[in-house]
Amino acid sequence: MSQDDCIFCQIVDGEIPSRTVFEDDVSMAFLDANPLAPGHTLVIPKRHHETLDDVPEDAAAHLFGVLHRLTPAVEHAVDADGSNVAFNNGEAAGQEVPHVHAHVIPRFHDDGGNPIHAVAGRRPDLSEEELDEIAADIESGH
Ligand code: 5GP
Ligand code: ZN
């Protein structure tokens, strides 16, 4: 399944060049064209799925396996002190390319960046009852 107007499908099909660092039947990883840090890498399933919940569980598990192996290699390549590994999952979360992708962003002690806590907007003030309700809804919803 590939979508003609999708940049990442075109990368998978070799129609747009990329600095590919890993490829197998199911997934692919390449350097981000506008890196937030040296070594900033994107890891994608080859099939076109927009968000994480669209990805079948076996492909999602495979993707996590690739992330697990690739992240230390990315860190090592640029001598990073750590990394943020994250998905912008959906437009509201800042996803611009509608083909699901994980960012591996190398981090350095003195890079002036922020932890992942900095990505959200206003913090909610939730009561104990509201927290209980949310937890129960999540528990029953998967
Ligand atoms: P998003 O905001 O969707 O999570 O991130 C999309 C990422 O894809 C951005 O970091 C952007 O720099 C990267 N990107 C967009 N177009 C291309 C491209 O044609 N090639 C590569 N390698 N990266 C791209
Ligand atoms: Zn696509």
Explain what the structure shows:
- It is a single chain.
- The chain is an alpha+beta fold.
- It has a single domain (3-140), classed as HIT-like (HIT family, subunit A).
- 28% of the residues lie in helices and 18% in strands.
- It has helices at residues 7-12, 57-77, 128-140, and strands at residues 20-23, 27-31, 41-45, 82-86, 102-107.
- A five-stranded antiparallel β-sheet has the order 1-2-3-5-4, covered by helices on one side.
- Strand 1 (20-23) and strand 2 form a beta hairpin.
- The two termini are 26 Å apart.
- The model has no long low-confidence stretch (mean pLDDT 96).
- It binds guanosine-5'-monophosphate and zinc ion.
- Zinc ion (ZN) binds next to helix 1.
